[in-house]
């Protein structure tokens, strides 16, 4: 067993730094080999088939399964040992989110198994083995993340670094495979839609990987083949979330942590009614827009143009609201004087880097659309709505990133020491003294409603004794009542605190509203509502193949940005 991290000697950290570099290079080469194999299959390279790609992915998953089983068994044998935990990693809401995506991924695997059974005559056995292996891999990985996402590994560090980084890039390759498969399906539908929009000068060649045999049960085959592509967005989000959680685990290997109490910040619906109502209105309207868009697009030229116009107008309105909410939140932050938490935190650092990095995907598409509108010779009416839409996408992400990154770096507000030492009691005639639940109830007038009770506020002292009844209590009554008048100035503390609570309530409503808006904007591209494909103007300016390559590279990052932003805003709402 290796020596635990935190040794003061420099020589102890040198091998671990080498292990970190070696393991990262191993993971990158693993990923590049799989990426090249995926690309070769996508372009129909000679000698490369889908079975080769699936065999490679199955091998990677089996290796990860062996490592996770070894880690779980070793953890069971060392159950009584006290381990360091990263309290910021693996939040419960994040585990619940990945569990939801994993359940839908298991449904996707069952559809793939059914699809293989119906086309078993002409499909490779690897296409049946892959979903079974993937289902087992999904179940064990979710269990592993629930139990050990917070671990800070201090033993067998070199071996664990290779095991964790192998898991990270295995999930990234599975994510890449899902993105490519889903993108090829979307691209085929997009090529067919371009015909209805009148872009006949674009060569339409469908990229078909369908089996070259008849299905045994036509109805089931149709359900499986169509259902698979509607479930892929959840599978894609599952793997990217798993890879980020595993990456934080890898960064935490051998890390020294300060042992301090972490305040739990549960999610509460109280006080965010306004933000939730407006957010749910946006969510409901977005779902309706997506349904109408998918029905109308490709039906005829007029219907397709109306669908694009409807999408752009709705998106412009939502993005404008989000920009306004983000600006208000940043102005509130400017009015507050609170320090930032700059302590080392791999999870928080990764969140900030992912926000900026994945936003670049949307920015690339937006700038491409802006240039296409400027340079195009002919402008159909619906394409002009693309200009404010693209500009707002850039501005909204810029503002939202500032809000989220500052929110997750702000220190939580602490209660003033004067308020902490305040003792609030009530004097009841002819009865013992009783403590009121909190100073907030006195301030809100709740305790004052109790008959024949007088609140008494004293700095650093208790107003009466629980056993001081009778004559002694009567003698002290006049003195205590005079203290009530003297301590009225203490209410100024609560007045300032009330202002802070109002700001806090506004911030929580903004975070809740932006959370639901990001979920709403995740839905259209994830389920095939992609005007970047269907607009047609960019393909004319940049060329069909170059623009499709740009969209296929940038769109997965744009989709992930919305889900990651929603997760970060949920955390902001809990912290605020």
Automatic annotation (TrEMBL):
Molecular function via GO: proton channel activity
UniProt keyword terms in alphabetical order: Cell membrane, Hydrogen ion transport, Ion channel, Ion transport, Membrane, Transmembrane, Transmembrane helix, Transport
A Gene Ontology BP annotation from the UniProt entry: inner ear morphogenesis
Main location: membrane
Membrane topology: Multi-pass membrane protein
Repeat recorded as keyword: no
Family to which the UniProt record says this protein belongs: Belongs to the otopetrin family.
The name this protein goes by in its record: OTOP1 protein
Organism: Caloenas nicobarica (Nicobar pigeon)
Gene: Otop1
